[in-house]
């Protein structure tokens, strides 16, 4: 939640500073952000179970705070396209029948996202916006967690997955040279399939609801 407090403080400061000219068609905006990622991670379906999961088994992915960048191109004065770049790392632990069990370790996720945004507001003032678009989650170098290894897992794989992102936020001008503070919240709707292997044999396959909240705050530079 640290990034939420940072965003509120930044907005309060920015509101006391004179505004800037509004964005126009052809402008490019670059954002440097601190991002809080809070995924769900619960099991939505068990596809294969050769190990006998205890009754009531459930899972949860941990939260993370990471740096991200966003690049935005204004196709008109009020409409823009935005893509983000960043990598977030998560572990998955058991709940219920496997409470505290380490199941997935160091799953690095690249949330490749492109959103179409509509900006509100008037020239020189704060510009709230809403947006939506596709996202493709790419998983890199994930490993079985400590408990899974102790139970004989030698390899773990999360399936790359296509989903949707919905966002809302605000850019608040700081000066007349294109500098602003920005606050952004995204909700992703995406599922992934997790597989565990013992040697060459797949022993467990589960479907997971990721659906992370991704909340960012930082600085925007428009050119």
SSE class: mainly beta
Total number of helices: 2
Helix proportion range: under 10%
Shape type: elongated
What's the number of extended β-strand segments? 15
- Average pLDDT works out at 90
Order of helices and strands: HEEEEEEEEEHEEEEEE
Distance between the termini: 31 Å
Spans of at least 5 consecutive residues whose pLDDT stays below 50 are 1-19
Oligomer class = single chain
Q: How large is the share of residues in beta strands? A: over 45%
Question: Can you walk me through this structure?
Answer:
By secondary structure, the protein is mainly beta. The chain has helices at residues 2-14, 146-150; strands at 28-38, 42-49, 58-61, 64-74, 79-85, 88-95, 102-119, 127-140, 143-144, 155-158, 161-173, 179-189, 191-198, 201-209, 213-222. The strands form 2 sheets. It has an 8-stranded antiparallel β-barrel with strand order 1-4-5-7-8-11-12-15. It has a 4-stranded antiparallel β-sheet with strand order 2-14-13-10, with no helix packed on it. β11 (161-173) and β12 (179-189) form a beta hairpin. Mean pLDDT is 90; it is low at 1-19.
